[in-house]
Write a structure and sequence with these properties.
The chain has about 300 residues and is of the alpha/beta class. It is built from eleven helices and eleven strands. The chain folds into three domains: about 5-80, Winged helix-like DNA-binding domain superfamily/Winged helix DNA-binding domain (Arc Repressor Mutant, subunit A); about 90-160 and about 265-300, D-Maltodextrin-Binding Protein, domain 2 (3-Layer(aba) Sandwich); about 165-265, Periplasmic binding protein-like II (D-Maltodextrin-Binding Protein, domain 2, 3-Layer(aba) Sandwich). Strands 3, 4, 5, 6, 9, 10 and 11 form a seven-stranded mixed beta sheet that branches. The protein has a two-stranded antiparallel ribbon with strand order 1-2. A hairpin with a 2-residue loop joins strand 1 and strand 2 (about 55). GO terms for molecular function: DNA-binding transcription factor activity; transcription cis-regulatory region binding.
Length: about 300
């Protein structure tokens, strides 16, 4: 049943004049007549008595008036549930790479929760390669990834920030005493690396292959914290995002190895499905991150 037809019916019933009803609703008189005619046809009954130029509400019309008013009120209430001016509430499901979950996302979520306390947030850590599938299966609403997902036509991608990676070692590692280290000096050293799908590990392996350098990968770990602990006790060297090791470097628990001609960076991205409805909680998060990015760019410039 068409809400516009019901609104026209109520207005005609109030004014008992098709022309005046059209003026109030900003419709032509013929449109008003069409609305009433189509509504009567759908209901299978006349709603008005027409005596010359005068219009009267008949018994069927009187029965309909209260229900029609209720339906219009219900429609307004439904629209109000999703009114952008209303308090934002609901569920927001986030997926994120471990680096971003641990070292970047927490203050963002803290700010978000302060502004939008009625939104329930769930966070799932996963490998970046899993996010496109998770989005396409509606397992999450948004993901924060370190992988470039632009090859997926159904993914929208927003660059958030760039960060460098650093080679790290225990403070007493023999390479730490060298101010500048040629990449060939990494040959045959023990390495502790993240899993093979990790984007910066892939770049490292391509770089080593380009220079025909062989390293001894003694461990492959999925946990950044596990990698850092193994490096701390001297089991080997690793390559990790600087954001993930800055605290340990500042405390002297880890040391940076300065490798010549080795510039491997990461780029954090916000990704979501192009056909996904941008719910108020998701739109609020998106706007917050984009605003923060613009503020950071302004500080830098």
């Amino acid at each position: 049943m068409d809400i516009k037809q019901l609104q026209t019916f109520i207005t005609v019933a109030k004014l008992l004049n098709f022309r005046e009803a059209g003026e109030e609703l900003n419709y032509s008189q013929s449109s008003v007549s069409d609305h009433i005619r189509n509504l009567e046809k759908e209901l299978g009954t006349k709603l008005f008595e027409r005596l010359g130029k005068k219009v009267f509400l008949n018994e069927s019309g009187k029965k309909l008036i209260s229900l029609a008013e209720k339906m219009i009120q219900d429609e307004k209430e439904i629209q109000g549930l999703f009114n952008k001016n209303e308090k934002i509430s609901g569920l927001l499901r986030i997926g994120a790479a471990e680096t971003l979950s641990v070292f970047w996302l927490p203050p963002i979520l803290k700010e978000y929760r302060i502004i939008y306390p009625d939104v329930k947030v769930t966070l799932r850590m996963a490998d970046c390669a899993e996010f496109p599938k998770m989005l396409s299966h509606n397992m999450i609403d948004v993901a924060f990834s370190l992988h470039d997902q632009s090859q997926h036509e159904y993914i929208s991608q927003i660059n958030i920030f760039k960060d460098s990676t650093v080679f790290i070692a225990a403070p007493d590692h023999p390479l730490v005493n060298l101010k500048r280290i040629k990449i060939h000096e990494l040959e045959n050293h023990s390495f502790i690396l993240p899993e093979a799908e990790c984007c910066y590990r892939v770049e490292l392996e391509e770089l080593l292959k380009e220079h025909s350098i062989k390293i001894d990968t003694i461990m492959e770990l999925s946990s950044l914290e596990a990698i850092k602990q193994c490096v701390k006790i001297g089991l080997g060297i690793s390559l990790l995002p600087k954001i993930a090791v800055q605290r340990e470097i500042n405390k002297g628990e880890l040391a940076i190895l300065t490798i010549e001609n080795c510039d491997i960076s990461i780029c954090a991205k916000m990704i979501y499905h192009k056909q996904k409805w941008i719910s108020p909680p998701l739109n609020a998060l998106k706007n917050m991150i984009c605003t923060n990015n613009k503020e950071e760019e302004h500080k830098i410039s």
